[in-house]
Each structure stands twice: as C-alpha cells, then as structure tokens.
Design goal:
Blueprint (H helix, E strand, L loop, with lengths): L3 H17 L5 H41 L6 H4 L9 H8 L1 H9 L8 H12 L2 H8 L5 H16 L3 H10 L7 H14 L17 H16 L1 H10 L11 H16 L5 H15 L4 H18 L13
Helix pairs in contact: 1-2, 1-11, 1-13, 2-4, 2-6, 2-10, 8-10, 11-13, 12-13, 13-14, 13-15, 14-15
C-alpha cells in the first residue's frame, strides 16, 4: 500500500524535522520514518472502520424509529438496504481487519459527532437516493455506493479532515492517498472470499522499505557532497533567500538520481517537482526543475551518472 510516491513525501517531512531539530541521529530518523509509515497504515484501517461505524449508526437510527412512542409507517417498515449492505457485512467480518484492531487500538467511539455528520451527508446525496430506490440491489451495487461515499463525501469533508488531524499529526497529508487505496480495496473485494478477503499490505514489497531506508541514509550521509553541487549551480542566486525546503528537496532528489540506477531520471525529476509544488513556495517547482536539470547534465558530462535500462521479460 505504501508506495514510493508516499515514501518520498515522508522522507521530505522527516528530514525537514531532522535538520530543523537539534537531534541529528540517523537511527532516530529511520525510526521516525517507520513510525510515520505505520501511522499511515493505521489511517487505512481507521478509514475502513469508518464505513462500518456509519452503517452501525444508521442501524441505530432505524431501531430508534421503531421504538418511538408513536412510530410512523416508515419507522415500522424502513428501507434497510443501506444497513444490510453486503460489502459492509463482509468487511465487518474480515479476519485481517479484526486482527489489526486487536493489535492497534483504533476507534471512533469518541467521534460520534463525525459519524452522525457523515451519515447525514450521505443520505442527503443523490446517489444515496438512487441506491435506496433502485428496483434491485447487487453485491456490485453495494460496493459501488461505498466507493462513491469515499470519493464524493469522505475525501472532501473538512470536519473529518480536522478530526483526523486532531487524532494524529501524521494523518493530515495522507488522507487523499489513503482514500484512493480504500477505493481500490473496495473495487477488488469479491463476495466468494467472504471473511478471507485480502486487504492491502503495508508495503507492496520489501524493496520499497529498502528504497526508503537507503534514500534516507544517502541523503544524510552525503549531505555535504550534495550541498556543494547545489551551491555550484546556484551561484547566481541569493542563497539566503532560497527556501530551506527547496534545498532539502534538491538534496533528496540528488540522492535518488545518483544512488538508484534503475529509477529513470525523468521519474525522479517529476516526483520532486511535484513535491516542491505542494510543500514549498509558488516558484519552487521551476527552481527545483532548473537546478536539477543543470546538475544532471553536469553529472552526465563528467560520466558520474549511471542509469540501468530495465527490460520486461516476455
């Protein structure tokens, strides 16, 4: 689940704190990186759990209606399609989900106002009405309604965003990517797998964690070397006015370009230009792009840059 796009962002965040703080320990930086990754994986399960909690709240609302002193016909004969959603039933029974929550204490119990707000926004949506009033329902329709809920309501909800930020400082920047993973998870659910449906692993493979550790190590251990390269190609700039974040992004980008021969240069360039757009100043993307381009051309001319062309076997 944790892909290299997210790993690069987390390394930028960790190293920003590393250089701005007083403790310059590589081992502590690596531990902080791993902890940050674990918190992102927590968020994946926490937001999956949100769908279950919203459904439970809806069920409680139905029970409350039935138990009114003077229930209406609608109270006594409610449309239960939403609370009987087959995908949610399957998710709630999922063994991997249950096992994760037995080890990690994640709960929405103290955030019932968020659950209520989410439910009210869902039932006010047009796609909810279409789902509830359709002539028939299917397992695919039960999955589809939740993909829409995550994409159109949960992803853009400011109250939820603020709540998640309060729950963990590590979650604010991860919401969009994690929701995209949840939508993919729902899409891949199969009714035949029942409670054994596989959820996303923390890493797609061990090589991604090794990539992250090596990138972190190379950036820290060769920081002075990368600083010299950056200084050489920023002579015409007022160095004191260059954003610290821009220098940091350049160092991490150089660590990747120089030390990972199987990653194409254009891939690395594009990734760090995008990071600069989001995490630094308005002009940072063009600055980072220009400096990296000049350094890469210099390294090529000095035969100091090796890239391996990877071929897919047929």
């Amino acid at each position: 689940m944790i892909n290299r796009v997210l790993l690069r962002i987390k390394i930028v965040q960790i190293l920003y704190s590393f250089y701005k703080g007083g403790n310059h320990s590589l081992s502590l930086a690596e531990k902080e990186l791993l902890f940050s990754i674990e918190k992102t994986y927590d968020l994946y399960f926490h937001l999956l759990q949100l769908s279950i909690e919203i459904t439970r709240y809806a069920d409680l609302r139905i029970d409350a209606g039935r138990n009114k002193l003077v229930p209406t016909k609608e109270d006594l004969h409610p449309n239960t399609r939403f609370v009987e959603n087959k995908f949610i039933r399957q998710l709630e029974a999922n063994k991997q989900l249950k096992d994760y929550f037995s080890k990690r204490k994640l709960s929405w119990v103290n955030y019932q106002d968020i659950i209520k707000s989410m439910y009210e926004k869902i039932i006010a949506s047009g796609f909810y009405s279409e789902y509830m009033n359709a002539d028939t329902t299917t397992y695919e329709a039960d999955k589809s309604i939740w993909r829409k809920i995550y994409k159109k309501i949960i992803l853009s909800d400011k109250e939820l965003e603020e709540s998640l930020e309060e729950q963990s400082i590590y979650w604010f920047d991860d919401i969009e990517l994690v929701v995209s993973f949840i939508i993919k998870t729902i899409k891949h659910f199969e009714s035949e797998k029942e409670d054994n449906q596989a959820l996303m692993p923390k890493f797609r493979g061990e090589q991604d964690w090794e990539f992250a550790k090596e990138l972190l190590t190379q950036t820290i251990s060769r920081s002075d070397e990368y600083q010299e390269l950056i200084s050489r190609f920023t002579k015409n700039w007022d160095y004191d006015r260059i954003a610290f974040m821009d220098i940091l992004i350049l160092k991490i980008a150089l660590a990747e370009i120089i030390n990972f021969p199987t990653i194409p240069i254009n891939v690395s360039l594009n990734e760090y230009i995008e990071i600069a757009k989001f995490y630094s100043t308005e002009k940072s993307a063009n600055f980072v792009n220009g400096i990296l381009d000049n350094i890469v051309n210099f390294l090529k001319s000095e035969n100091k840059l090796t890239k391996v062309v990877m071929f897919n076997s047929k």
